[in-house]
Predict the structure.
Amino acid sequence: MLQRLLLRCPNWISPPLPTSHQLLPPSSKTPLFSWIPPAPAPPAGQPSSSRSHNSRPALRSLSCTSAGGGAGTESQPLQQHQGMAAQDEKDPRLARISSSIRVIPDFPKKGILFQDITTLLLDTKAFKDTIDLFVDRYKGKKISVVAGIEARGFIFGPPIALAIGAKFVPMRKPKKLPGEVISEEYSLEYGKDAMEMHVGAVQAGERALVIDDLIATGGTLCAAIRLLERVGVHVVECACVIELPELKGRERLGDKPLFVLVNG
Ligand code: AMP
């Protein structure tokens, strides 16, 4: 895998990914990914950046906006704070999840701080805690569809779907699905992309959870919501491991509830 990554990014000089036994508990003083140089100190009088290159930021408000009651059933809506990952900011699971995500500067292109969840997957406890937090929130909420967005929504979606007794529906990039599809276009920074879903994978009236690894501008999640709603599915909530709050993707979702575990 490392070889493949190096091929894709020949200038990347990071050492190999740590194995799970090398991942340190969040309480350790040693930075998890110490090979990434520290961010320069800000000029005097200026606040330091919320993101640094050598470590993830301290957990800020772990957010869950659940306008309209979040994932609760119609008869039993969740309270605003019920089931929030942020309910207890001292929950050690959240700190561990946050510190297990690696941040790679300038990948895949200059200026992007890439939130690499592959290191979270190496930490068996952080990975399990991630799934458990989602499952705790969505079990018993009559969700029959977990719609995972290609590609990293395919990592988190299936274990959640299995645990809550829902089917998993892949929302794929164009021309990947073999059957008849419906498609939804969305805008990227440069140009357009599209997302496809098999016709017949979902039925009108079903209740869906949309899952991806990260929300940035929110365009991807919006496309998934539109696609599902076009065929009469009720999107109960969107869920991501990471939110980049500066990009205000949450606002783009309007009143559609969004649940995230950590901020990037
Ligand atoms: P957006 O549509 O702008 O919310 O972008 C979200 C999608 O792009 C998700 O599928 C993410 O996996 C990916 N993405 C965007 N920005 C990043 C980032 N900084 N690090 C990792 N993935 C990202």
Summary: The helical segments are 2-8, 92-100, 118-122, 124-138, 153-164, 219-230, 249-252.
